[in-house]
Amino acid sequence: MALEYASGKVSQGNPALDPERRRRRDIVEKTRALDRESVQSKIRNDETTVASDGGLDTTNAEQQLGAPLSAPEFIRRLKILNSHLIFEVSNGDPTKYGIYIMQWVRDPLLGTHEYEKRFLVGFENGFMPEFSVRHFKIERVPDPDFRGGWRAVKTFAKETRGWRTVLMRLIRLGLIREPEMRMNFRLTRDSRNWQLLTS
User: pTM (2 decimals)?
Assistant: First the structure.
């Protein structure tokens, strides 16, 4: 089968290929195309998750610091915007808080309703930067062009969540309103990501 390929491509008109070999060749070609697209998609996604925000490095803690807030101060300000929000320290990781809200849930089988606590978003229990800091690791991935080599890419590892990210999610969920939020939180600079996700 190794002789069936010339410069990485099969000669379409090769009469020596019987239908079974042609079928196997097609499977190999399709698999290569899918693998190539999968690797290229992974590289694009990884580059996007650590991409800059209007020219500022989202992986640089100093550039993302902005106006840091302590968890108690952040909670105090959020309660002004929505008194129904519930804040709990995570049982599994005490360095994190969770924001919840109680909501009515209908059981379709019984036809009954009951209150259920719904998780909304997590944040740091301590001091939070204004902007999320994206931590990355360098990962080797196969060259998507199958040249036999490897390519080093920045891969998202974890996030130190900034308070703006939490506010953005609550705005998008309709649980706080941006005009009132701006009266309680001082935004230190423009953010392209903020504009994209709140407009």
Answer: 0.59
